[in-house]
Amino acid sequence: MSPTPLIRIDILSAVPDIMVSAINASIIKIAQEKGIAKINLHNLHDYSDNKFRHIDDYPFGGAAGMLIKCQPVFDCIEKLRSERDYDEIIYMSADGQNLNQSISNELSLKRNIIIIAGRYKGIDQRIRDYFVTREISIGDYVLSGGELPAIVLTDSIVRLLPGVLGDLSSALEDSYQDGMLEPPRYTRPAEFRGMKVPEVLLSGDPKKIKEWENEQSINKTKSRKPYLLD
Fold first, then answer.
1. Do residues 124 and 68 touch, judged by C-beta distance below 8 A?
2. Do residues 80 and 114 make contact, with C-beta atoms less than 8 angstroms apart?
3. Is residue 52 over pLDDT 90?
């Protein structure tokens, strides 16, 4: 009997094929193989009531572009919700809250999440008003659709689940986990083409190494993203 996943993520999309390789590789694949996470892709065209499987239409008011209609999204979400309760229904949107580590940490504690990946000029506002509990952006720029942002969010959540990474401390020591950037990291050899690893990292003294790492983290954060220190 397979274990019950710690989290289930259902992603709704007009073009789910974009995400197939991403959910079947690397960390997300490992999480699914271990039964820790279950990721499901849903093609909104499969829920269309149009014989041509169209899911978009022109926006009222004469704005340019096309919008994903209410009907296929409502039908898909209502089917999923008839089968289980969902903690969050997230819309990946350029005008949403910028994704950060705190959001990923919080979402990693949820059991069931729906992610809506928009396309064209987005989705009908009524979908957002009726279903969406949170809107998330991966940056202040516009992409062709929400599929890549949905994968970014999924990866940022799944890698935090216990048992996914070989060493849990690897995730806990990432940049942003303590509000600062990660210090420089080195591996063997200790010298490569005249470039040497800092002596303190070879000292074997945990206290000195920790002090060095803290100092490097502060300096790096101050230099690159000082607003984190605020």
1. yes
2. yes
3. yes
Residues in the chain: 230
Give the whole-angstrom CA distance, residue 202 versus residue 209.
Answer: 9
Look up the pTM and report it: 0.89
Q: Give the 3-state secondary structure of residue 119.
A: strand
User: What domains are there in the chain, each with its CATH number?
Assistant: 7-158 (3.40.1280.10), 176-229 (1.10.1270.20)
Angle between helices 26-33 and 147-158 (to 10 degrees): 60
Q: What is the DSSP letter of 193?
A: T
Cα 64 to Cα 13, 94, 142, distances in angstroms: 21, 17, 16
- Output the pLDDT for position 168: 55
Q: Enumerate the H helices of the chain as residue ranges.
A: 17-23, 26-33, 70-83, 101-107, 125-130, 147-158, 168-172, 206-224
Q: What is the Cα–Cα distance from 225 to 219, expressed in whole angstroms?
A: 10
Q: What are phi and psi of 173, to 5 degrees?
A: -100, 5
